[in-house]
Design a protein that fits this description.
There is one protein chain. With 60 residues, the chain is mostly helical. The chain is globular, with a radius of gyration of 13 Å.
Length: 60
């Protein structure tokens, strides 16, 4: 499966500050348990996981 995402500012900022806080907390938690991943790789993997979850929910 290939997941493409739009990195444009508009696409990245539509969720608001509440989601930003939650995302940063999850990233910090995953960074503690996956210390071998760079911050960029961790963000990429999390984005892919959330995108796959969104696709799965839209098909329900």
């Amino acid at each position: 499966m290939t997941i493409l995402s739009d990195t444009a500012e508009e696409a990245c900022s539509w969720t608001g500050p509440g989601e930003d806080t939650v995302r940063e907390r999850y990233l910090a938690a995953f960074a503690r348990v996956l210390p071998g991943l760079s911050p960029e790789e961790l963000r990429c993997r999390m984005r892919g996981t959330l995108a796959a979850t969104a696709v799965g929910r839209s098909r329900s």
